[in-house]
Amino acid sequence: MESVPLKEARGRLGKIHASAARGQPVEITRHGSAAVVVVSKTMYDVMFTDHLRWQAEQFRKALDEGTVPEGTLVIHRDDIDRWRDATPEEWAAGRLDA
């Protein structure tokens, strides 16, 4: 994978775009650390879909074990009732967390 400093990438955006579109990801670094990788939309879609499938599988496993996956927001019926009955002021104030 090609690695390009951010300052140089600004002037080479067209070439970086062309490389990514051909399926060759380009890493853009800032101050020597890898900050981003430019990939084609097709490659991104494949990676994102694979990640969603992995997440779904992890969720299924946790539910089969009778647990709630870490980081999952659990919404109870009381929350839904409270949200439905909330005033616009309560929504604007952001006081309706689950």
UniProtKB/TrEMBL annotation:
Coiled-coil regions listed in the entry: none
Matching Pfam families: PhdYeFM_antitox
InterPro entries in alphabetical order: Antitoxin_Phd/YefM, YefM-like_sf
Function, in words: Antitoxin component of a type II toxin-antitoxin (TA) system.
NCBIfam families per UniProt: phd_fam
Family to which this protein belongs: Belongs to the phD/YefM antitoxin family.
Protein name: Antitoxin
The species this protein was found in: Actinomadura physcomitrii
